[in-house]
Amino acid sequence: MAQTHETGVVQTHQPEESDGKRVCVFTTAHDTTDSRVVEREVASLDDAGHDVTYYTPFEGDGPVGVVSYDDAEEGAIPSIGTRIAEAARVTAALWNTDYDVYHFHDVEALPAGVLLGARTDGTVVYDVHENVEATLRHKPIFPAPLRPLVATAASVVERTLTRFVDEVVAASPDVAERFEDVADPTVVTNYPRRRWAEGTNPDEHITPGDGPTRIVYRGLLSEDRGILTLLDAVEQIPDDYDVELSIGGKYDSDAARERIEPRIEAVERAEFVEWFPSLEGMIEHFRDADLGAMCFHPAPNKTDAVHRSNKIFQYMSAGLPVVVSDIGNWGKLVTAEGCGVPVEPEDPAAVTDTIVDLIDDPDRRAELGRNGHRAALERYNWAAQREKLLAVYEDDEVEDLAPTREHVERADRSHPTDD
Fold first, then answer.
1. Of 314, 307, 309, 308, which is closest to residue 278 (Cα–Cα)?
2. Which of 51, 208, 239, 378 is least surrounded, with the fewest CB atoms within 10 Å of its CB?
């Protein structure tokens, strides 16, 4: 499909006629490289024949027409104030449009979605990625005494406005549970496209080779994601072990940068890798590693969030054994699939011991990697999730193929290969 790229608050894009629905996907916080919003959902809607236009505050190219309604720096993490301002800008940009579907991805965009639904005949889809109430109670976005009040108020507003949208898509079962009494949410998880697992050669990428044991983490960088714990753990590994830790991504705040950046620079075995501009580059980076780490600290928004994780399933697609926090359903998943080792995420010594045990046992690392790769090929991929997303647009009943919060049924079923 031809690219459309416009900049400015008052710019609009009227879609051309097509056999599918005319779809507007809009966001206040996601750029044109976002895994869930663009690489999976937007691309799948486009592939299915819908005429999709993506409205984002960031400049960039995507698989469909892109309207940049602001000049935000690509890769930046917008503050709450910025996101609210972007919600006003995208509302203005969309005010004179008339799409068949308005599909948005951010809680602050809920008023825009409700207003557009009332102004037009368009179907409004709210795509919920996070437990907003739990996030606001935990994150130091507001002073501690205000967090419970802000979290409760935000939850009341979110759930009230959600009653006025047509469809709710949730990124995991625990998020869907919050809306079951006000909507009929469809769970569409963040499993990666199957082609990443298909492109992993077990003999080439999983069998341990010579050289240092390379541990990777890529994603948002913050203390509650266990970055400092991971750095401490690697620093404690005995000197006679040849280990490299590759940390990459973007800091979720200036405060996180101030705390984490000096520690990365101080740990001789650690290196910082810039944000990859494409998923292809990131997956290839994982294939060249030996272990994937996710040591998230306990937090209300993360405890049962494994099925909305991008990273753990990308690790599995690349054949990486996973060292993961033993919280909620994270440890349960890797144990059930035999693809990783749960660890106490706030105990650097425990993380050190787990990594050393895996370094000493390359055959076990290979077995864990193969198990995870097989699970990514058979179950944890976008194919079934794509069908559930498309069913929302077709108003079809669809079998709930999302895994339970405890475990995925090991059923033999055929998944279509997505591209």
1. 314
2. 239
pLDDT digits (tens, 9 = 90+) for 312-348: 999 999 999 999 999 999 999 999 999 999 999 999 9
Mean pLDDT for the chain overall:
87
- Which secondary-structure segment (H or E) carries 361? none
Give residue for tokens 């179950």: 379
The Cα–Cα gap between 34 and 37 comes to: 6
The span from the CA of 17 to the CA of 5, in Å, is 18
Q: Which residue, 145, 195, 164, is CA-closest to 386?
A: 195
The DSSP line for 13-48 is: -PPPP-SS-EEEEE-SS--TT-IIIIIIIIHHHHHT
Inter-residue contact 193 to 417 (CB < 8 Å): no
Instruction: Kindly state which CATH superfamily the domain 5-187 is placed in.
Output: Glycogen Phosphorylase B; (3.40.50.2000)
DSSP state, residue 197: H
- Where in the chain do CATH 3.40.50.2000 domains reside? 5-187, 194-378
3 and 33 Cβ atoms separated by less than 8 Å = no
Residue 68 CA to residue 57 CA, distance in Å, equals 5
Contact 62, 32 (CB under 8 A): yes
Between the CA atoms of 205, 386, 130 and 343, what dihedral angle is there, to the nearest 10 degrees? -30
Dist CA 351 CA 237 (whole Å): 10
Write out pLDDT tens, residues 54-73. 999 999 888 999 999 999 88
Q: What is the CA radius of gyration of the chain?
A: 21
pLDDT tens string 253-280: 888 999 999 999 999 999 998 777 778 8
What confidence score (pLDDT) does residue 358 get? 97
Phi-psi region of 318 (alpha: psi -120 to 50; beta: other; left: phi over 0): alpha
Handedness of CA 8, 63, 399, 374 (dihedral sign): negative
CATH superfamily, domain 194-378, is Glycogen Phosphorylase B; (3.40.50.2000)
- Residue 198's pLDDT band, with cuts at 50, 70 and 90, is very high
pTM of the predicted protein model: 0.85
Strand partners, 342: 324
- Give how far Cα 7 sits from Cα of 57, 59, 156, 258, 398, Å: 9, 8, 34, 33, 38
